[in-house]
Records
---
Amino acid sequence: MAPVINAKTVFNEIPTGYPVPGKTTVYDTSETIDLENEPLHGGFLAKTLIIAIDPFLRNRMNIQQGTDKPGFEFGRPLSAFGLAKILRSEDPSVKAGDVIRGGQIPFQQYFVRNDATGFEILKDNHSLPWSLWVGVLGMPGHTAYVGWKEHARAKKGETIFVSAAAGSVGSLILQFAKRDGLKVIASAGSDDKVAWLRELGADVAFNYKTESTAEVLKREGPLDIYFDNVGGETLDLALENAAPRGSRFLECGMISNYNEENPYRLKNALFIIKKEIAINGFFFGSLLPKWGADFEREMPPLVKEGAIKFQEDAVRGLEHAGQSLADVQRGTVLGKRVVIVADH
């Protein structure tokens, strides 16, 4: 077989503010690969199938704390959670035809790895689209599930505020909270997203761009739980409107700060002490060993039967990855943005 194009989207420069396609990232088709003869050196050759576009990727474009380098390497493909299919293997832990999932799937059509460490083989898709395994049944689903199970300590009748509630994590938290009998206040940045929140059962859904978050929380609070995807001023307002004692703040993301040169600094931190607020930052990978088996048992059936709802915004073609990164940061995506690089 003649060599084929091995397109990739590479990291080109650290963005100032929002990432810019063609500047922050560059789509490159100059490389080719011989799929039959590419040396494996005991590893495997895989074809990238699906890439998840998650908000945290913006942080990896910045200089990493304690270093003088960004999280991505200049001139090299970006990487993210995704799925790939093994084409050839000299590694006994994987074989041709296996679908693997991992957090270091490159923005590249084909790639070689020395070993399968860090990847898992997905054996059963429960007759659901594979793309769900990087969305509602992937990292975002894991994040919402383990954070809720570990830190929410929810009680029926309590009030929760979920920011960025139309996203792939926030929309699941909304549904978990309703299943547990909570009053849900949910915010999003567009009217179509607010309509989606109401469809999911939010008791109070509002567009923070056209309605005052401060007024909504003052009217609908106090808050027993805040699930934070935004940080910044929204976190400050949640602190101010927390219940007098014992509220729980689950710190999942702070997208309001990701693209700012001078991020908002908290003014209401003293309420953490005054109101005895428990603040729990968490990373899904740390909690997955504890809750992963429960997730795998519970979530796929709920998704398959429609008891857990989700939105997926899929684009086809690696050339759209750079624009997708910008879209997610600007909040123009409803649900989970995935890039379909190839079919199985």
---
Amino acid sequence: MNRHALVTGANRGIGRAVAAELHARGLALTVTARDAAAAAGTAAELGPGVRGQQLDVTDPDSVGKAAADVGPVDILVCNAGVLLDAGTGPLTAPLDLVEETLRVNLLGTWRVLQTFVPGMVERGWGRVVVVSSGTTAEFGGALFPGAPGYSLSKSGLNGLTALVAGQTAGTGVLVNAVNPGRVRTRMMPQMTTPPEVPARFIADVATLPASGPTGQFLTERRVPQ
């Protein structure tokens, strides 16, 4: 069976690299972006059989329309996110930036999960990967105070991952968060690791066997077997 994967925030950076890796593995693929032209352009660049779809995770109508347009999704990679408060601190961060960060990173991902995961449960198979960060307090980490809104949003994503994994346990749907590490993207142009490196690991998590983990925060140092 040819599984259908959908990647949010897939027009650049880690999302685009993950989409390219999943396409190379032969999956049917939908790439999404807030801008319809960017999604279409990325789909055309990745090759035949890739579909571009406008999807703004903060807009319920946009997410609902995407679900109606693309049909059943078997593999969902929630990558869309923003980093807006770098260089601030908990007592100085502009709360409008923190609010927007939470609206995109946490609530936007939550909206996408509520839209696509119930169908996976009904069909008895699904893989969900939430792109998180090492700036979180869970699983032995520590919150990074230099981007407090971003760090809290990613900690929230880890908690959300655990909640959804708990609700889907035993249904054939595996839900995990991943830490891609410090990667050269528009968010962090000073880094040297290209996004293609974590993309391979993220694609492995997106295609886990039935015996794979769920409700975990996975890093490239702990690739599931």
